[in-house]
Design a protein that fits this description.
Elements (H helix, E strand, L loop, with lengths): L3 E4 L3 H12 L4 E5 L2 H8 L10 H10 L3 E5 L2 H4 L4 E4 L14 H10 L8 E4 L7 H9 L5 E4 L9 H6 L4 E4 L3 H10 L7 E4 L1 H32 L3 H9 L20 H14 L5 H25 L7 E5 L14 H11 L3 E5 L13 E3 L3 H5 L4 E4 L4 H5 L2 H5 L6 E4 L6 H6 L3 E3 L5
Parallel strand pairs: 1-2, 1-4, 2-3, 4-5, 5-6, 7-8, 9-10, 9-12, 10-11, 12-13, 13-14
Helix pairs in contact: 1-3, 9-11, 9-12, 11-12, 12-13
The structure holds nicotinamide-adenine-dinucleotide (NAD).
The site of nicotinamide-adenine-dinucleotide (NAD) has 27 residues, from helix 1, strand 2 and helix 5.
Length: about 425
Amino acid sequence: MSGVAVIGAGYVGLTTATCLAHLGHTVICADIDEKKVDALNKGEVPIHETRLPELLRDGLSQQTLKFVVGARQAVTDSEFVFLCLPTPQSDDGRADISAISQVIEEIREIIPAGSTIVNKSTTPVGTNAAIQSLVRRGDVAVVSNPEFLREGVAVTDFLQPDRIVIGSTDPEAAQKVSGLYNAVDAPIITVDPLSAETIKYATNSFLATKVSFVNALAAVCEAVGADIESVIRGLGADQRIGSRFLQPGPGWGGSCFPKDMQALVRMADDAGYQFDLLRAVIEANEQQFARVVSKVERLVGDKLGGAKISLLGLTFKAHTDDLRNSPALEVAKLLSSEGARLIAYDPMVESNSGLPTEIELAQNIEQALTGSDAVVILTEWPEFTRANWGALRDFMNAPRVLDARNALDRRAMLDLGFQYDDLGRI
Ligand SMILES: NC(=O)c1ccc[n+]([C@@H]2O[C@H](COP(=O)([O-])OP(=O)(O)OC[C@H]3O[C@@H](n4cnc5c(N)ncnc54)[C@H](O)[C@@H]3O)[C@@H](O)[C@H]2O)c1
């Protein structure tokens, strides 16, 4: 028995499998998507992640990494089985862990004695114990090892994390899982499984709260005449606070924050604690989408019915191709419900699949801006900040920009004759 199985080849699973192979382990990664498995075995990476294609091809050519269809194909000779499976939000807000239960059912009888299941999916507090009871094997350990990578810089985050969290009731299993990360220079925080699972939700919720806080602060700055960038400089310099995640924007989103916030609220409810603070943060985020829309309305100076609004950026942030729960799409939905006609450009979005039908997709910035009544910057792609806005202005019906990422140079845009608004800058 040797090696590592990784179940799920999405953002987390593919990064985990590829990086563990890079760290010297022999890895078999399984997915149910046959096309994805075929492409990966040919060295084609289906997602946009810096360094991932190179490391994947290294692993394939050194035969330390391969991809198979179905979990059962991966686990028969594995000492470790990493679960990197989706845990989407169910209708009641709780995390749906059915993919995990299903995989455990598939593999429970064939995983070798002495192996360790390592859960990297974000799962409700108590899932580690639930997996242990689903496995029904005294000779298999279950360890929680939540993942904190950020999409776009997933490889760097995996290989140089701020910390590695390991949750286990079995010190020997925890030690073995720590050993997989020997070549990674990061503190290892070993705790009980309930705490490990809580750390993951606490981290995402705290970050989302920080973003909502700075969004609200930008609104305060507008109301009192202060400048959010100056405020952030002073606020972020306080080491108790730090300057990261203090950037105003159209609201938080992505595949994790919204579902993890809801899941934590539900988990707390179920355990008898009303997490009203988090409820307020979720509510503030909804309001932020609406705030962006009302700023567009003000800029256009009229109702949005019939106005042609250009959207720059659709992914949930720059440097990823992930559209899941993107704030840009939330804003688009509201603009469309106000009657706006929408045309959008995003450097990472090449087809309409995954986009609401109301959005027409342009192939470049110029096409998106042609005949436009206002443009809204929704993700902070460098292509937008580097663009020649003097020349772009001439494509527009009216030169109006709402910079919902505070990405452009405010003074320069005003000097170019744009009607320009952003979030809390003066
Ligand atoms: N994406 C992130 O930035 C991130 C960061 C940290 C933690 N997480 C958590 O990690 C988990 C995975 O997230 P993700 O973004 O990688 O999801 P994803 O949707 O990108 O990938 C999940 C993969 O699992 C595969 N899959 C589904 N059922 C399967 C099965 N029965 N057998 C084998 N493969 C199966 C899917 O085909 C897909 O390729 C989630 O719990 C998520 O909350 C995500």
